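F.,

This is the one I mentioned.
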């Protein structure tokens, strides 16, 4: 699975090594107590519907870029430092990337998963 960013005519891969947080426990723990993400890696949190989704970085070792996506449209992009208590936006999936992994991604762009 890859994370694809589309801005106008430009299409690029944000990550080609993607971890899915599918279960409730995985969604609660995310990157807590794990090694930092490397360039080309991402953790994706898929949800069944669009709703407000909060992210925290308690027990996360490094800063991360976070992208909130609702129906493939970017709602928010933020860089969160370790021990951030809460940041959120509407989303049906949330993507966590290493810092710099979301460079160039802005609200209104398209981001999708490619299953190849």
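My design for it:
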């Amino acid at each position: 699975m890859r994370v694809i960013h589309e801005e106008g005519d430009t299409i690029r891969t944000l990550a080609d090594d993607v971890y899915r947080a599918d279960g409730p426990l995985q969604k609660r723990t995310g990157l807590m107590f794990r090694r930092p993400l490397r360039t080309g890696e991402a953790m994706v949190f898929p949800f069944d519907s669009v709703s407000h989704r909060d992210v925290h970085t308690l027990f996360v070792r490094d800063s991360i870029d976070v992208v909130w996506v609702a129906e493939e449209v970017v709602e928010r992009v933020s860089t969160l430092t370790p021990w951030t208590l809460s940041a959120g936006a509407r989303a049906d999936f949330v993507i966590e990337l290493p810092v710099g992994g979301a460079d160039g991604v802005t609200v209104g762009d398209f981001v999708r998963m490619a299953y190849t």
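The two ends are 6 Å apart (CA to CA).

Talk soon.
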